[in-house]
Amino acid sequence: MALHPPQNTSKLIFAPANDKTHSQADQYTKGALEISQLDPRDPFTQFHAWFTLAQQSGVHQPETVCLSTASLPSGRVSARMVYLKELDSKGFVIYSNFGTSKKARDIAGNKWASLTFWWREMERQVRVEGMVERLSSEESQVYFDTRIRGSRVGAWASRQSEVLGEGRGQLEGWVREVEGRFEGEERIPVPGFWGGLRVMPEMVEFWQGRESRLHDRFQYVRMEGGEWKIERLSP
User: Which segments of 110-181 does DSSP mark as H helices, in order?
Assistant: First the structure.
């Protein structure tokens, strides 16, 4: 990608430019968004409509989402890419290790989290902010059973985010141990430290890219009583 000549030699990258014009950043021109195009009552219904369209429009893995958490009292924020696996009437569900992971430590002291979807092919973004809750083992088992055997074994074997002082061979050793433990068993129980996390939104924002960075933004805000208010935001 073309770069503007840096004015300060200490900058390794400065104002990355459009690689077609070699002068300006890309403009968003694929759509516009009006309040009349949004579901008037329910961000879940609206998200489902956008997600379905993203699937039909060839967006690469539209279920990919950035999950952000923050540690208290430091306020230090962590973000990572995960997969949305479920959407229900309460919120957005992802699955992960909650025994040793950084996200688990953050959530233990701070139940707020956010999700950010970016669908480049449609120039759309969805942001979600809300409180989180763990799914029950019974609920998590239902999804766990859909995973390939290697992923189920891996969930048991990985001590997520721990330092591998002996390199990858240490991880592969843990995998062999788990494979031996469940040898000959087709159904593997979900680990107690692994499962679903539901982000229950207090705010959901739908973002459509526009030219000159004058994007269309609408947010649903949960009101007392559970109803949702829709507001247009300045870009």
Answer: 137-144, 149-157, 168-181
Nearest to 103 by CA among 170, 197, 204, 202: 197
What pLDDT, on the 0 to 100 scale, is given for residue 13?
87
Residues designated catalytic: 213
Give the model's pLDDT for residue 105.
95
Q: Which CATH number fits domain 35-232: 3.30.390.50, 2.40.30.110, 2.30.110.10, 1.20.58.100?
A: 2.30.110.10
Assess contact for 56 and 106: CB atoms under 8 A.
no
Q: Which two tokens stand for residue 151?
A: 């992923």
| Residue 136: alpha-carbon gap to chain centroid | 20
d(C-alpha 9, C-alpha 7), whole Å: 6
pTM score, whole prediction = 0.89
Whole-angstrom distance, CA of residue 204 vs CA of residue 115: 9
**Structural contact between residues 113 and 69, judged by C-beta atoms closer than 8 angstroms:** yes
Residue pair 101/95 in contact by the 8 Å Cβ criterion: no
Residues of the chain under the 50 pLDDT cut: 1-2
